[in-house]
Amino acid sequence: MDFLRPASWEEALAAKAEHPTAVPIAGGTDVMVEINFDHRRPEYLLDLNRIGELNEWEVGERTVRLGASVPYTQIMENLRAELPGLALASHTVASPQIRNRGGVGGNLGTASPAGDAHPALLAAGCEVEVESVRGRRMIPIDDFYTGVKRNAMAPDELIRSVHLPKADGPQQFSKVGTRNAMVIAVCAFGIALHPETRTVRTGIGSAAPTPVRAKEAEAFLTAALEEGGFWDSGSPIPPSVAKQFAQLAAGACNPIDDVRGSAAYRRHAVGIMARRTLGWTWESYRGNAHGSKGGAQCA
Amino acid sequence: MAGVTRTPTSLVQGGKTRAGIGESTLRPDGTLKVTGEFAYSSDMWHEDMLWGFTLRSTTAHAEIRSIDTAEALATPGVYAVLTYDDLPTDVKNYGLEIQDTPVLAHGKVRHHGEPVALVAADHPETARRAAAKIKIEYCELPVVTDEASATAEGAPLVHENRTDHHAGHVPHPNIVHRQPIIRGNADEAAKKADVIVSGEYVFGMQDQAFLGPESGLAVPGEDGGVDLYVATQWLHSDLRQIAPVLGLPEEKVRMTLSGVGGAFGGREDLSMQIHACLLALRTGKPVKIVYNRFESFFGHVHRHPARLWYEHGATKDGKLTHMKCRIVLDGGAYASASPAVVGNASSLSVGPYVVDDVDIEAIALYSNNPPCGAMRGFGAVQACFAYEAQMDKLAAKLGLDPVEFRQRNAMEQGTLLPTGQQVDSPAPVAELLRRVKAMPLPPEQQWLSAGEGADVRALPGGLSNTTHGEGVVRGVGYAVGIKNVGFSEGFDDYSTARVRMEVIGGEPVATVHTAMAEVGQGGITVHAQIARTELGVQQVSIQPADTQVGSAGSTSASRQTYVTGGAVKHTCEAVREKVLATGRAKFGTYHPAWATAELLLEGGKVTTDGGEVLADIADVLEDEAIDLELEWRHRPTEAFDLRTGQGNGHVQYSFAAHRAVVEVDTELGLVKVIELACAQDVGKALNPLSVVGQIQGGTTQGLGVAVMEEIIVDPKTAKVRNPSFTDYLIPTILDTPTIPVDVLELADEHAPYGLRGIGEAPTLSSTPAVLAAIRNATGLELNKTPVRPEHLTGT
Amino acid sequence: MRVTFTVNGRRQEADDVWEGESLLYVLRERMGLPGSKNACEQGECGSCTVRLDGVPVCSCLVAAGQVEGREVVTVEGLADFAKQRAEGGGCASGVCGTSVAEAQQWQARPAGSQAGEQAELSPIQQAFIDAGAVQCGFCTPGLLVAADELLERNGSPSDADIREALSGNLCRCTGYEKILDAVRLAAARGDSHTAGQGA
C-alpha cells in the first residue's frame, strides 16, 4: 500500500490521474473501517486532508458551494439557515466524533444508500462538482447515483464540492434507526418546499438500491398544492392529501429485508416520515412555528 | 519478565482513604484508569514481541478436507503457522465442564468463526495477509439450528460418540443436558384454577459486548514454561484448561491478571489464552493477540437464546395454583456453561413466587449456532422474561393490578422453591415491588420542558428527528426477579486469600493477595475495605491477581464479594488473632484486659471493645510479619435430582424489582425508555457507591436486550449476520434513562457481614419491566425480545 | 513510511509505519501511549477519542499518514492540557508530554508509590473518580476527552447537552448515570471555581 499526500488540489488530481485505483481518504470514517476490518486493501490511499479548500464553503447569492470535506459539525453549526435539510441530516450522522471528521464528499464517494446526506441533497436539488486533470464538470444529483455503492464519477475524478441552492422554503429530514443516537439509517426521508418554484422535492435513503426521490409523490403534492391554492392561502394541508403523499412516498421505495429492518417496515416508515415531515415543513411555511421548531432546535 | 514494559502492578490505597465496609469508597485503580496508565490486557507490550492471529471458519458446519499452510509459512515476517496437527500433546480439547471444544478445529468445524489455524508474525498486517494464504478445503455439512432440526430423525449429530457425564440421561445426543423439576401435581392443581394463561416466549441471543477485546501477552520462560498476562474471569479455571494442552505442569504456566475491560460472563471460557501460549512456545518469542470487534463476536460465548412455553393458573382471588413450563436454550456448538445454565433456568423458572404444584423442564441444545454460555443472569434472565409476562397476563385476566397480583403471590423467607429447598434468608419481594411503585413518576411530555418546541433528544428516535410528539404514547410496567448467588448444585465453591500484616515506616500495613479477577465490579475496593475494618489499618496494598496464590473462583454468579470477600475477611480474622496472640505474649502481663476483654484492631492500635487502647500494632509486631493464606467456602449445596429436580441446590438469592416508564412512537415503532426505577435488597452494602453503579449497569444491559440487542444468526446457514458494533447495537447515553435506585439492606445471617451478591439481579427484571411498559403503551402482546419496530408496527 | 506529529505537546516520530495503520495503532503500539482504547476500531464506541488539532475524533478512523505535522492530545496528556488551558496558555511545544523513549519505557506506577493519590488530575478526571463513573474503565479515556471538550465549549451543560455530547461513547458497565454525575460535578466545580475568582 502507498500513502499519497498531495499538498494541493492540482497535485491530488494529478495523483488520481496517475493512479485511478487510488482510494481517496478524507474523514476516513468509511475507508478506515474497511481497512481495520480487512475488507479492503487499496494499492494507494490518497489523503485529501492537506487540501484546505475542500474544508471551505462559500455562501453565494443563490447557492452554497460546500467543500467536499467540510465536516458535518460545521454544516450543523454554520449552514442551518442556508441548508436546513442538510444541517438536520448532518446532525443524525453517527456520533459527534464522526461528525467532526466526515463530510458530504465521503457520503457521495461511497454512495451507500444509507448515507445520511443523500435524502437532503436530493430534496434540495444540487450539483456535484467533480474534477480530473481532464477538466471539471457538474453532475446533477439526480444523475449521480447509478447503483448500489456506485456513482457517475470516472475513475480519475475527485469530488471538489457540492453546489446547493440556498433554501427558499422549509426543509426537513427524518431518519429511522433502532437506537436514539449513533445509528445507521434503517431508512430516511428528506423534504424541501420550494415556494419560489412552487414545487416540492424529496429524497429517500436506505429504502432502494440507491438514494431516490419520490417523484410521483412530489408531482402529486406539487399539483395538489397548486390546484388548491395552498401556496397563496397558507391553509392547512388536508389529511387526505398528506395521506396520499405518504402512500406515494412509500410506493417509491424498493427496499430489501436485512439485519437492520424488513422491507415492509421500511416502506411503512418512509410513509410515516413523509407525512410528518410534510406537516412540519408546511406548518413552518404557514408561519406557525409549532411544527418544525423541535427539529430546528437541535440542528 | 525484565523485558515486559507494561504489566499489572499492585495498587496501594492509604493516605486520606480510610473507609471500611459500609462506606462509599473510591477505587484504588481509579487514578490509573483516568490517566490512561492502567495496563489492560490489550495494552501489554514486550520488546521484540510477535502478533498472533487466528484464522476462523467461514462456514458453520463442514468437514475439513485439507489445510495447506505452506504459502503462509513462507511469507516474510511470519514465524509460525499452527494447526491441529501441531498441538503438542494428546489433550487437544478444553471446556469448562465438558472438554468438547477443540483448541484448533480437527476434521470438522461446528460453528461459524471456529478457530482453525494460528499465525505469528512481526506485524498484525503480516499475520493477516499470511492467514489469507492458508488454503482450507471445506465440504459443507447440513446444519442444525433449533430444537426441531436438532432432534429430527436422522439429524446430524453435532458431537458424535459423546462420553460426557450428561450423555447418559439426555433424550437425544444433540441435547447437552436436561433438568426436569416435578413438585406436587400440576395437573391436579390446575383444576382449582379459575383462570389459566399460557404463552410462548422467545428470547434473542445477547452479547456481553464488554468493551475491552479478548487479548493478552504470552512470554516464553527460560524454564520452558510461559508467563501469560490476560483478561479473564477466573485465572485458575483457565490454568486447569491451558496447562494440559501445552503439556506443562501448572506451576510452569504462570498467569497474571491484566486489566480487564468488562466481562459479564464472556470471559468465563477461554479465548486466545492457549493460542498465544502455543505460538510463544513455538517461536520462543513473546506473542500478543488482540481480537478486533468483529473477531470478538466469534471469540466468546453469548447468552443462550431461548424459547419458553409457560402455563399458569390462578384462582379468582389472585392466588397462583400451578405452573408448567418448558424452556429450550440453544447452547450452540460447544457445551461451555450450558449444563449449569439449564440448572438455573429450571430451578428459578417459577420466579420469586409461591407455587406448590409445578411441572418444569429445561434443556440446552447442541446446534451449529454460535456457542452460548455465561452471561450476567445466567439462565434466570430468560425465565424472568417469560414468567413476568405471564404475571401480567394473569393480572389482566383477573382484573387485578399487576403489582398487587405479584404481591399476593410473592415468596418470602421460609417459602419452598420448586426444588424443595427452603428460602432461609429475607426475601422481601412484595416490599421491593411496593418501593418501586411508590417512587414518583417522571413528568409527562418532558420533550416540551425546554419551552421552545420539542427537544428531540427526549423523544423516541432521538437525534434522528422522527417525531415531535406525534404518535407518542406512554406506558408503565413492572417486573421482579430472583437470581441465585454463587455456584450451585454441589459445586465446591471456595476462594483463597493471602493477607500479610507488617509494619512499614512505623505504620501497620496490610497486603491482600487473591486471584480474584477484578473486571470492573470493584472487588479490589471491597477487599481493601474489609482489611481496614478487620485489621484496623489505614494503608492496604492490593497485589495483582495471579496463580501464585490459590483459586478465588470465578468473577461470576454475583459471588465475588460473598466468597472472595468472605475469604479476605476470614483470613484477616486469622491474622488478627495472631496479632493479638503476639500482643498477649508481649504485653499480656501489663494489663488484665489482654486476657479478659474482647479485643479489636482499630486505628493502628489494639483496643478493647470498650475502646481502651492496649498497644500500638507497630509495637506488637515490630519486625515480625504475619502472613497467612487461607481458603474459605460458603455452605455446601447439593445436586438436583435428575428426575425430580429436588435438592438444596442454591446457597443464596438476590432480588430486584423494576418499574419501567417508556414512551413509544406507536406509528414508527420506536421506543424511548424514560425511567427505569429499581429497588433491590443487597443484604449489606459494603460499598454503597459501587452497589448503585452495579445496579444501574445491570439495569442498562437488561434495557439493551429489551429494545435493541440481538446477535442475528441466519437460520439456513447458521452464520452470524451482524458481528459488529454497527449492527449489534448497545445502548448509548441517549438511550439510557435516569435510573433511580432504592437499596434495601436486610441481612442474610449466613453471609459475611450479611451481604447479598448483587451484580446480576437487576439484569433480570429490567427487560420484562420494559416489555411490560411497551405492552402497556401499545396493547400488543409482544412475546419476543428484543422488541423491534416491526413487532410494534405489524410490518 | 515515517510519520511525525505532536502528541501532548511533544514532537513524536514513528518509522516503518504501515500505510494502513491508524493513528490509534501508532499511539498505542509505536509511541507507548496505550491510554486511547481499541474497543471497536470502527468509530462506533468512542473509546479511542483524542483531540486532533483540538477536535475530538476517533483515532481508529484517522490514517496515521493523515496526522503528519498535526497536533494530538490523548488522555495521557489531558491533565496537562487542562492545566495549560486553565492557565490561559496553549500547550507550549516540548514542555508537556513525554518523549518517545520515556513513553516506551512506560510502566504503571510501581508498588508503594501511592497510586491513586499523587497524580495531578484534570477536573474531569477527578470528577470521574469521585462520582464513581469508573468501573472497568475501558471507555473512560475516550469519555474523558469528549467530556473535557464539552465543558470547554459549554461550562454548564444541561443533561440533554451532556447526553448528546457523549452519545458517541459507549459504556457497558455503568448505565451512564454516574458518568452524567461526573460531568455535572466537574461543571459545578468549574462554576464555583470561576465564581471564586469573581469572573
Tell me what the structure shows.
The complex is a heterotrimer of chains A (299), B (795) and C (199). Chain A has a single domain, classed as Uridine Diphospho-n-acetylenolpyruvylglucosamine Reductase, domain 3. In chain A, a hairpin with a 4-residue loop joins β12 and β13. Chain A is 37% helix and 21% strand. In chain A, strands 4-5-10-6-7 form a five-stranded antiparallel beta sheet. In chain A, α3 packs across α4. Chain A starts with a strand and ends with a helix. The longest helix of chain A has 23 residues. Chain A is of the alpha+beta class and 299 residues long. In chain B, α17 crosses α18. By secondary structure, chain B is of the alpha+beta class. Among the domains of chain B are: 180 residues, Aldehyde Oxidoreductase, domain 3; 206 residues, 2-Layer Sandwich (Aldehyde Oxidoreductase, domain 4), CATH 3.30.365.10; 140 residues, Aldehyde oxidase/xanthine dehydrogenase, molybdopterin binding domain (Aldehyde Oxidoreductase, domain 4). In chain B, the strands form nine sheets. Chain B has a seven-stranded mixed beta sheet with strand order 6-10-4-17-14-15-16, sandwiched between helices. By secondary structure, chain C is an alpha+beta fold. Chain C has two domains: 102 residues, Beta-grasp domain (Ubiquitin-like (UB roll), Roll), CATH 3.10.20; 74 residues, DNA polymerase, domain 1 (Orthogonal Bundle). Helices cover 36% and strands 11% of the residues of chain C. Chain C has a five-stranded mixed beta sheet, with helices on both faces. In chain C, β1 and β2 form a beta hairpin. The radius of gyration of chain C is 17 Å and the shape is globular. The C terminus of chain C is likely disordered. Chains B and C meet through β2, α1 and α17 of B and α4, α5, α6 and α7 of C. Chain B: GO terms for molecular function: iron ion binding; oxidoreductase activity. Chain B: It comes from Streptomyces sioyaensis. Chain B: This is Xanthine dehydrogenase subunit D. Chain B: InterPro entries: Ald_Oxase/Xan_DH_a/b, Ald_Oxase/Xan_DH_a/b_sf, Ald_Oxase/xanthine_DH-like, AldOxase/xan_DH_MoCoBD1, AldOxase/xan_DH_MoCoBD2, AldOxase/xan_DH_Mopterin-bd_sf. Chain A: Keywords: FAD, Flavoprotein, Oxidoreductase.
